[in-house]
Amino acid sequence: MSAASFGFVSLLLLAAALPAASGLSASAVVSAPAAELPAQAFVNLSEASNGPVSRDAYGVTTRAELLRQQYTLTYTTTWSGPIRWPFPTPVRISSDFGYRPPPCSGCSSYHTAVDFDPGAGQPIYAIAEGVVKESVDGYGSWGNYVVLEHRINGQTVVSSYAHMQRGSSPLVAGQVVKVGEFVGLVGATGQVTGAHLHLEIDVDGQKVDPFAWLSANAG
User: Fold this and answer.
1) Is the pLDDT of residue 174 over 90?
2) Among 26, 149, 163, 188, which residue has the least CB neighbours within 10 Å?
3) Beta bridge partners of 159
4) What is the model's pTM?
5) Pseudo-torsion of CA 90, 203, 140, 135, nearest 10°?
């Protein structure tokens, strides 16, 4: 095939390959400018400002502190005064003060406390204003317990709250507590047969019957 014939056939093939509906000529397709793309933004990370992170906005709230907030009670006409029962409503007593058959191996036959049984997980409250002498989350016979010291009618009164749930008391030694302030939750830590509050009251160095003492002094 001559060069002229080859060129003519090439033009025919090119014309046939172009879409008929486009209305564009071969020269128009070749010379059409490419669409302009937006320029890509560039950020110099070394110049970026990362302000200091303020740690003051963060804090850690313990379970005991959350329990304190949850179980803080307001004063009521039936549960008020400078001396109160450890619960704002009447609860069952499972073991009295004095002699008793030992309820478990190693348990005492002379009970120097009263066992209140409102149910596991119930909140316990301080019977009077005082100072925390001990706050122990231990594994002894009392388990998790708190001891408060009060000054009442010229006497030194010590109240002890034993067998509470682990990690439930927000109180620390040396802290001043108000009457009716949250102490912890009823539990079954230490040497027990079930969940209850073991409450002891000591007046001027002598253990007394907590039920009788509270009956005589609490509002």
Assistant:
1) yes
2) 26
3) 148, 201
4) 0.69
5) 80
Name, in order, each residue with C-beta under 8 angstroms of 89's C-beta and a sequence gap of 6 or more.
79
Enter the DSSP assignment of 83.
B
Residue at 167: amino acid letter: G
Beta carbons within 8 Å of 164's beta carbon, 6+ residues apart: 124, 143, 144, 145, 146, 183, 184, 185, 186, 187, 189, 197
Q: What is the pLDDT of residues 96-120, one digit of tens each?
A: 867 766 666 566 666 688 999 999 9
Helix (H) or strand (E) holding 29: helix 26-31
User: Phi and psi of 110, rounded to 5°?
Assistant: -115, 110
In Å, what is the CA distance from 137 to each residue of 57, 64, 184? Answer: 30, 12, 11
The secondary element (H helix, E strand) that includes residue 200 is: strand 197-203
Q: Residue 99: how many CB atoms within 10 A of its CB?
A: 9
54: confidence class by pLDDT, cuts 50, 70, 90? very low
Rg (CA), the chain: 41
Q: How many CB atoms lie within 10 A of CB 149?
A: 15
| Single-letter code of the amino acid located at 136 | V
Note the pLDDT tens digit of each residue in 19-53: 444 443 333 333 344 444 444 444 443 444 444 44
When pLDDT is cut at 50, 70 and 90, the band that residue 76 belongs to is: confident
- Measured distance CA(116)–CA(97) in Å, rounded: 11
The answer for residues whose C-beta is within 8 angstroms of residue 91's C-beta and 6 or more apart is 116, 117, 118, 122
